[in-house]
Amino acid sequence: MSVYDHYRPSERAFVEQVLDWVQQVESSYVLKLTDFLDPREQQIVKQIVGNQLVMHSDGGFEGAERCRLILAPDYYELNPHDFEIEIRRIEYPTKFVDLTHRQVTGTLLNAGLKRQKFGDVVLQDEIVQFATTRESVGFIEMNLDRVGKAKVRISSVEQDEILVVPTIEWIEGFGIVSSLRFDTVVSEVLNMSRQKAQALVKHGDCKVNHKVIEDASFILEPDDLLSVRGHGRIKLMEILGSTKREKIKIQYGTIR
Fold first, then answer.
1. What spatial distance separates the first Cα and last Cα of the chain, rounded to whole Å?
2. Which of 77, 150, 230, 244 is 20 to 30 A away from residue 18, measured at CA?
3. Which letter does DSSP use for residue 218 in this model?
4. What is the DSSP letter of 188?
5. pTM assigned to the model
């Protein structure tokens, strides 16, 4: 069985990239520092690397979701500076503007920064911070001076001022579905019609494992993370078997 058989066809390109990273480290005996990876990508790297190499992760924030990974030979000793992560703060007129996570992420992308070049965006008590790669700091400072209509300033953050990512508390639930299609599961969990779930997919408002999906019939698997704009997140935790009528029993978590 090929290693690719364990992953979805859409993940093949990333799997190939990870295999190339492993080969580079094993053949050249130098560490490989990745860009910021989402949780699914991190999971794939860990599965492929196994015990072949030493692996460390850091996202800049305690509890970070998106992290950079270091893959290295077994004699490597971790130096936190090797992650090359910088935390920056967005200073804005808090009396007149309320910034959202979506606005900040969208602004960074619209400025020309690729998604893998910045990590988590953390908002707390009118403080906005984000993690980025050291090489991207100059580009951000030169190209980002507004978020929406608000004029902003990018500033550095002292180590003791770095925020902590809030802990995610999933609300667990159970359901019965006829299939593991995206629209079927979302319909059950969010108590909406399949037609509405399909419309959300069509409008680009849905993601699976941080990637936009364009097919409402996309088949889900355990540990998949779903995001539905305006409705929060769903995590498919476990398949619990079948009913006598051959429907599927699922356990899930939600954040709204």
1. 40
2. 77
3. P
4. H
5. 0.90
What does the longest C-alpha to C-alpha distance in the chain come to?
Answer: 62
Residue 56: both structure tokens together = 């460390």
| SS3 (DSSP) at 117 | helix
C-alpha torsion 155→158→160→164, nearest 10: 40
Cα-atom radius of gyration of the chain, to the nearest Å? Answer: 20
- What pLDDT is stored for residue 149 in this prediction? 80
Alpha carbons within 13 angstroms on the beta-carbon side of residue 253 total 12
**155 Cα distance to chain centroid:** 24
Query: Across the chain, how many H-helices and E-strands are there?
Result: 6, 15
Chain segment 39-70, per-residue pLDDT in tens: 999 999 999 999 899 999 999 999 999 999 99
Report how far residue 126's alpha carbon sits from residue 98's, in angstroms, rounded to the nearest whole number. 8
Reported as half-sphere exposure (CB side, CA atoms, 13 A), residue 37 has a value of: 21
The pair of structure tokens assigned to 26 is: 């094993």
